[in-house]
Design brief:
Blueprint: H1 5-16, E1 25-28, E2 42-46, H2 62-69, E3 75-79, E4 92-98, H3 100-103
Parallel strand pairs: 1-2
Antiparallel strand pairs: 2-3, 3-4
Length: 104
């Protein structure tokens, strides 16, 4: 889960506004996308890094894929979603497993 979404949102606000851009920006600390992040122009989803636990291993190899990528981030950024009535569209993943500093 994202530990300080308010601080990150304030930093995003300083970077983007004041501009004439009309953007819908959503941030959620829930990796289940409870805030419908993918339905907005720019979305940030807080995620946790996978942890290997020998007792719970079912040989799905998720931990191996994680180690191969050497993931170190905590966020997933999505772009280009929209909620217009005629043609709604889910946002696409732009960056997966990025830390807050690089996201800005």
């Amino acid at each position: 889960m994202l530990k300080s979404p308010t601080i990150l949102l304030k930093q995003i606000e300083k970077a983007i506004f004041p501009n004439d851009l009309h953007l819908k920006i959503v941030l959620t600390g829930c990796h289940n996308d409870c805030a419908k992040v993918r339905m907005h122009d720019f979305g940030i989803i807080g995620m946790e890094l996978p942890q290997y636990e020998k007792d719970r291993c079912v040989s799905c190899k998720a931990c191996i894929n994680y180690c191969n990528k050497k993931s170190v981030g905590t966020l997933r950024l999505t772009l280009l979603g929209r909620t217009r009535k005629k043609n709604p569209r889910l946002g696409e993943d732009f960056i997966k497993w990025v830390n807050a500093k690089r996201a800005l």
